[in-house]
Each structure stands twice: as structure tokens, then as C-alpha cells.
Amino acid sequence: MGWIRRFRGKTTVIKLGGSLMGNDDAMRHTLLDIIFMESVGMRPVVVHGGGPSINKAMEKASIEPVWIQGRRYTDAKTLEIVEQTLAYELNEQLTAEIERLGGRAMNLNFRTTNVLFGEKLLLDEPGSEPIDLGYVGHVTRVDRQTIEALTYTEQIPVIPSMCIDENGQKYNVNADTAAMAVAEALGAEKLIFISDVNGVRRVKDDPESVIHSLTAAEAQQLIADGVIAGGMIPKVEACISTLHRGVGKVHIIDGQLRHSLLLEIYTTAGVGTEIVQSRQSPATRISPT
Predict the structure, then answer these.
(1) Alpha-carbon gap, residue 150 to 127, rounded angstroms
(2) 210 backbone dihedrals φ, ψ, rounded to 5°
(3) Strands (E), the chain
């Protein structure tokens, strides 16, 4: 009850990873958690990716995916598949499932109301020209008013990780960075990354070694020490950057654990990793009473 009172009226941005969306049981329980959050007064906002579903659609179209520095190279044909699969099929399926489970949701895509605006992304390459990823972009502006208007009317906004520029060109966007942009624009209390990893671990392959709470400085030290390595480095660095831009707390949790979202938010111990600016932060994981 203490946590419910504390977070009533607060905005939480939830990033659903594509790996989770391939697990129907885990997705159903995650959506039930999100509906519960809205029912007790929180304002959840969902941002989703859809990598595995896009890969399947590309395979069906006999198109081989190309990856550059962990990002999908997106030519015109791939962009069509991303738009159809991510912005329409998955986005509308998620919204329909929330409604079926008893919640109220609104899909925000190019057919309804787009809320993510941006520009083409070029990757910096030291000593050479920037890398062109095709139709890959990054978010420069979020329609905060539309998103907040929906949350005020007790609806859950569901946002695909795509954006459009001032000339009407659409772009594929990394879902983590899209969720970060939304959380920063809304001044969210929390940004939660839900995937198939239970958080930052002291030992990479040992789920029991998860670190439940880190400050930004402690996380940076773990990167320097090599404890945080590989693909977790850019995710944690992104979490730290988001904290510097006003988001209260960032969580990394495993969506395959039943009700992990509620356990992370509404219990003192939590089940994943929280990253906060400092121990003195009001968002630090302590007892609410």
C-alpha cells in the first residue's frame, strides 16, 4: 500500500523488448501488470520493439537482415516490413490484447496519431566518414501533450519505435532509445526495460548474481572494472544518461518471471536492477514507510 500511494499519479514508461513479445504467456502477464498499475493510479506508457517478428517477416520476404554495430540496416524494402510489422500489426495487437484483458489502451502509430518525430541517424566512426544505416533515425521531439492527455483519461498509450521527419520520411528507431526519449520528454518517475535478462549481474551467466540497486557512479565503476560488459554496456550507459536528463529511476527486469513488473515496483527488494542518480535520491529503493 505504501508503494501504491507513493506512485499514484506518476508516469512510468515501459519498454517491451521484442524477445518478450514472442512469449505469449509472459506477455499476457506483463500486460496484466500494466493494467493493474493503471488501475491503482499510476500512468503507464508502453514503448515497444519487435525485432524477432521483423526478422520472421523479412525471412518470409527472402530478405537477409544486415546488422551494423548492433543496429538493423534499413533499406526501403526493409522499412516497409518494419512499418507493417512493428507500427501496425504488433502495435495494434498489443492494444487489442490490453483491451481484451480489461484495460483501456490507444495505439499511437502512423495510421492514428504519431507522437515520435525525428531525423536520420548517422553513426560516428572515428577516423572515417559517419556510417549510413539507411532509413534509421533517432527521436528529436515527442508529442507530450497527446500522450499525457491519454493517461489523464485512464488510457494506456502504446507507441511503436518508429519516427517521422518534417518531410514525412519514416524511420526505424532503436526501441531502447525511443523509450528513453519518451521517458525524458514526460519527466517520468520510472523507465523500465523489460526483456529476457533479469538485470545487471556480477557474473554474466549467473542469474543469482543480479545486483538489485546501483547508483550511476557505481554502474560506471562496474563498466570500468569489466563487470558490466558486452551488450549490457550501452544499455547501462543509456540508463545513466536518462537519469541525468530528469528520469527518477531506471529498472532492468526479466519479463519471463511472472508479475516481475509488479514485484519490481511494489516491493521493497524488487526482482531486477534499479539504477538511480544517488543514494540520496528520493527514488532510491527504500521502505516507503
Answers:
(1) 46
(2) -60, 140
(3) 11-16, 43-48, 67-68, 71-72, 105-107, 116-123, 131-142, 156-160, 162-164, 170-172, 190-195, 213-215, 249-254, 273-276
**Within-domain flag for 281:** no
The CATH number of the domain holding residue 60 is 3.40.1160.10
Would you state the cell numbers that stand for residue 31, as one nine-digit string?
500486460
- Helices 232-244 and 175-186, packing angle to 10 deg: 10
Q: Which three cell numbers stand for residue 70?
A: 548492433
Structural domain including 177 reads 2-276
Instruction: Examine residue 289 and state whether it is found in any structural domain, yes or no.
Output: no
156-197 pLDDT, tens digit each: 999 999 999 999 999 999 999 999 999 999 999 999 999 888
What residue type is 260 in one-letter code? S
Order of strands across the sheet that contains 43-48: 105-107, 156-160, 43-48, 11-16, 190-195, 249-254, 273-276, 213-215
Q: Measure the CA–CA gap between 159 and 163, rounded to whole angstroms.
A: 10
Collapsing DSSP to helix, strand or coil, 31 comes out as helix
Establish if 288 belongs to a structural domain.
Answer: no
Q: Residues of the chain whose pLDDT is less than 50?
A: 282-283, 286-289
> How far, in Å, CA of 275 to CA of 223, rounded?
14
Q: What is the pTM of this model?
A: 0.90
